[in-house]
């Protein structure tokens, strides 16, 4: 039986472990932290292909959304998978123009996308205040996932199929020899040996592979001024009822129900202002801005507990997934992606096939590390 060590138990490592263990491989999933406690737990986790360009990336994302549906059907539609659609609106001239163009493009591409009147939007989400002049788009095929419990479920399925889970309390390192990776070294000095090593380390992938000579073209998440970190705000404690039921994008804000109650908020322009060195005081200040914006679309949000955290996206430099065997470490496979919540189940299906059968999946051809190879001057 092939022994496979997967480094990283976020949504990517967990879905892949389920696939590989389910196919009969001898799988060990190793993580420094509790599975699902890193980026996958704080992600907005909007399952969508809404602004995924070019066309091949859009199509891959659409297929991934179908994969989520099939996969969770098999699990009896768990409550952490919430396919309630997505709602966006625009108010400024520029915003309306961009949203109208997006609606046209998505409808041309066969993606479920309908224009609603503001009144129809409020019928869908009665807590929202949508201005009469807004252009509103509804995307009924979209949804979101609560990443933490999703990872828990996939890890439990992998374990039921025989996978071992090792939580180390500190980062592991990979050791390499002539034939590729020779072992994963644990913080206590122990080692994991395998026939195949799979790197699913999220935004820390660069740091994991750099010591063995692999430069992964991913934004360094902990560098000062990095574009990978985000500020995420939770409003309302556990047990409070969320005022909305779906992912909503008013101008300058993204929101959805948080795990266990309340709302999760974020905004692209505020993400640009934070990095992992941002103080809690500054995160709280950005949280106040998010809360103020949210209060404009959902009146009466004040007076609830608020929590503001910084979390880091895995960002390949061109925004597209990186997946496949590493050219210089032939026994080692890489999967790292932004939009990893949307793409994980499909990436896991294709990666598992490549790892187990040695097949090369055409659909992954656009997402190889080799696309960054520079040609030698003549
Ligand atoms: C604020 C925010 C919003 C987002 N919104 C969306 C969205 O709407 N839709 C979408 O599809 N995606 C979204 N994303 C992106 C998505 O969340 C990620 O692509 C996805 O969670 C990545 O999963 P992962 O398993 O690769 O990483 P992670 O969940 O970070 O898991 C990686 C694991 O590897 C472990 N690890 C790393 N290095 C080591 C080491 N050396 N030793 C041991 N363990 C190690 C970590 O501890 C971690 O548990 C968002 C991300 C953020 C931060």
**Net shape:** globular
What's the story with the biggest beta sheet? 6 strands, mixed
User: Can you write the helix and strand succession as a string?
Assistant: EHEHEHEEHEHEEHEEEEEHEEEEHHEEEH
**What would you call the structural class?**
alpha/beta
Strand content: 15-25%
Distance between the termini: 46 Å
Can you list the strand order of the major beta sheet? Answer: 9-2-1-13-20-19
- Count the DSSP helices: 10
Whole-number tally of structural domains: 2
Q: How confident overall, as mean pLDDT? A: 96
Note the quaternary state here. Answer: single chain
Number of strands: 20
CATH superfamily grouping of the largest domain: FAD/NAD(P)-binding domain
- The CATH topology of the largest domain corresponds to FAD/NAD(P)-binding domain
Bound molecules: flavin-adenine dinucleotide
CATH architecture of the largest domain: 3-Layer(bba) Sandwich
Task: Describe the protein's architecture and organization.
The chain has 378 residues and is an alpha/beta fold. The chain has two domains: 3-43 and 147-218 and 318-372, FAD/NAD(P)-binding domain (3-Layer(bba) Sandwich), CATH 3.50.50; 93-141 and 223-312, D-Amino Acid Oxidase, Chain A, domain 2. It is built from ten helices and 20 strands. The strands form five sheets. A six-stranded mixed beta sheet has the order 9-2-1-13-20-19, with helices on one face. Helix 1 (11-22) runs parallel beside helix 6 and helix 3 crosses helix 10. Flavin-adenine dinucleotide is lined by residues 7-13, 31-33, 38-40, 42-46, 171-172, 200-202, 204, 208, 230, 232, 266, 311, 313-314, 336-342.
